[in-house]
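F.,

This is the one I mentioned.
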């Protein structure tokens, strides 16, 4: 008869959590949940903030595209409906994001184009308070400083705009700033400096017509009618409906005694442009800068200033 030996039973390890430890874990559960909730909330807030910023910048860019062509187009007056719509959209955007300079700067552009100089000046300064190198705000401020007779300040501001636009790789704004500064220098008789500034605008399709018209005025100031005629023709070739370039070219041709050719260009002018006396050139027939109608003669400009009494 064999004996069967039984191994002694070992006590089982208890799976129960000690009461003290269990109480501690239960106490930490709400804290952990709270931390997770806060973390998720921060992440969601950041994501929403990024989405809002992206949507805001997209809206600003859309407005910029809607006003650039109508305001820049040298052959037609500024479309008041386009400006009014842009004004409404930018008012909303600036209220939503008072800390963002992009909409403020564009709003300054629109206000200036609408002839609301004081509002434009205030908006430009508000934009510059948040972004001291905003090219559009600097351009508007420089224009308005010139209108206020602050010539030295205006030149400094426009030069700063050129640097800022160059650094931010904004070729249109760079050309615009150079055009405006060139106009200012022409008024001071600094013709060579002005001509140097016009190199970039002459090579930029958006500003080419205006730049050649301004270059031609420099040639007129120098008494070079032949070169002025060539430059006015370049302006007209770039924009065949550019009223002031057509008028300036016709007057210059007339002053050279090329009356038949002059009448051809007079015939191309839109007779609805009531600010011009067609077929009748100013005294001197385009022989000097003051005899030629400046770009901003008929409308408050964003891209140009009136550098003569007009």
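My design for it:
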């Amino acid at each position: 008869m064999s004996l069967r030996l039984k191994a002694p039973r070992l006590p089982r390890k208890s799976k129960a959590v000690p009461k003290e430890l269990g109480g501690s874990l239960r106490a930490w559960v709400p804290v952990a949940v709270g931390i997770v909730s806060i973390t998720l909330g921060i992440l969601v807030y950041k994501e929403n903030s990024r989405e809002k910023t992206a949507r805001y910048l997209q809206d600003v860019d859309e407005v910029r595209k809607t006003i650039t062509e109508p305001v820049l187009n040298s052959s037609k007056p500024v479309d008041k409906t386009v400006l009014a719509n842009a004004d409404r959209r930018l008012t909303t955007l600036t209220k939503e994001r008072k800390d963002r300079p992009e909409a403020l700067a564009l709003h300054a552009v629109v206000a200036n184009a609408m002839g609301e100089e004081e509002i434009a000046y205030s908006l430009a300064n508000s934009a510059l308070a948040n972004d001291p190198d905003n090219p559009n705000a600097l351009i508007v401020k420089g224009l308005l400083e010139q209108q206020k007779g602050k010539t030295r300040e205006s030149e400094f501001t426009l030069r700063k705009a050129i640097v800022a636009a160059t650094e931010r790789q904004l070729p249109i704004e760079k050309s615009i700033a150079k055009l405006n500064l060139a106009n200012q220098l022409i008024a001071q008789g600094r013709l060579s400096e002005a001509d140097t500034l016009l190199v970039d605008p002459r090579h930029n399709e958006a500003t080419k017509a205006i730049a050649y018209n301004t270059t031609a005025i420099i040639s007129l100031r120098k008494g070079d009618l032949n070169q002025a005629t060539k430059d006015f023709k370049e302006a007209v070739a770039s924009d065949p409906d550019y009223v002031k370039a057509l008028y300036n070219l016709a007057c210059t041709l007339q002053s050279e005694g090329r009356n038949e050719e002059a009448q051809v260009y007079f015939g191309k002018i839109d007779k609805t442009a009531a600010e011009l006396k067609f077929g009748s050139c100013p005294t001197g027939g385009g022989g000097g800068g003051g005899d030629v109608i400046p770009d901003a003669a008929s409308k408050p400009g964003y891209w140009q200033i009136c550098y003569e009494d007009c």
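The chain has two domains: 45-69+79-165, 170-310.

Talk soon.
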